[in-house]
Every structure is written in C-alpha cells, then in structure tokens.
Amino acid sequence: MEIKEEQDRFVLLNDENQEIGEMTWSNAGEKMMIIDHTFVEPTYRGQKLAEKLVYSGVEKARREGKKIIPLCPFAKKEFDRKPEYGDVLRT
C-alpha cells in the first residue's frame, strides 16, 4: 500500500498500483484545509487505511502550518477520537 499526494488529494494505491481510496480537501485561504471526502474501496475496509489517509492530511497541515476543518464525517470522527490532532484542528 502506498499513499501519494496529488493536487488537493491523497490517493491510496494497492500493491498493483491501482487506486483504492482517497482523501480530498479544499484550501480555504493560505492557512486552512477543509477535508471534505474520505473513501476506501469496500474490499479494503477494516485495515485502518482511511485513518492513514486522514493522518496524511494532519501531517501535511503540520508541515505547512495550516489548520484543518474536518467536514467529512469520517475525518470529523477521527478528530473527535484523537486529541493528538488538536494542534491542527480549527476550533
């Protein structure tokens, strides 16, 4: 499995280099990311892959000094469950 960053999204690739998931965001100004969508193909669910996609967004925000608004229900749940993401959560 590999996560690759593209324009406004992280793509999850399987070992055959096929796209099996994604997390997308919109930039709201220079200091804000809005995570609006997280998806993993049903056959790959239950492996914490969506969590890894959201974590990639958190790491990107930390690197770039941005805050995140998690509009996607899955991303919002991740932020609610993981207080360690509080440093990038826009409150």
TrEMBL record:
<dbReference type="InterPro" id="IPR016181">
    <property type="entry name" value="Acyl_CoA_acyltransferase"/>
</dbReference>
<dbReference type="GO" id="GO:0016747">
    <property type="term" value="F:acyltransferase activity, transferring groups other than amino-acyl groups"/>
</dbReference>
<feature type="domain" description="N-acetyltransferase">
    <location>
        <begin position="2"/>
        <end position="90"/>
    </location>
</feature>
<dbReference type="Pfam" id="PF14542">
    <property type="entry name" value="Acetyltransf_CG"/>
</dbReference>
<dbReference type="InterPro" id="IPR045057">
    <property type="entry name" value="Gcn5-rel_NAT"/>
</dbReference>
<feature type="domain" description="N-acetyltransferase">
    <location>
        <begin position="1"/>
        <end position="91"/>
    </location>
</feature>
<protein>
    <submittedName>
        <fullName>GNAT family N-acetyltransferase</fullName>
    </submittedName>
</protein>
<keyword id="KW-0808">Transferase</keyword>
<dbReference type="InterPro" id="IPR000182">
    <property type="entry name" value="GNAT_dom"/>
</dbReference>
<dbReference type="InterPro" id="IPR031165">
    <property type="entry name" value="GNAT_YJDJ"/>
</dbReference>
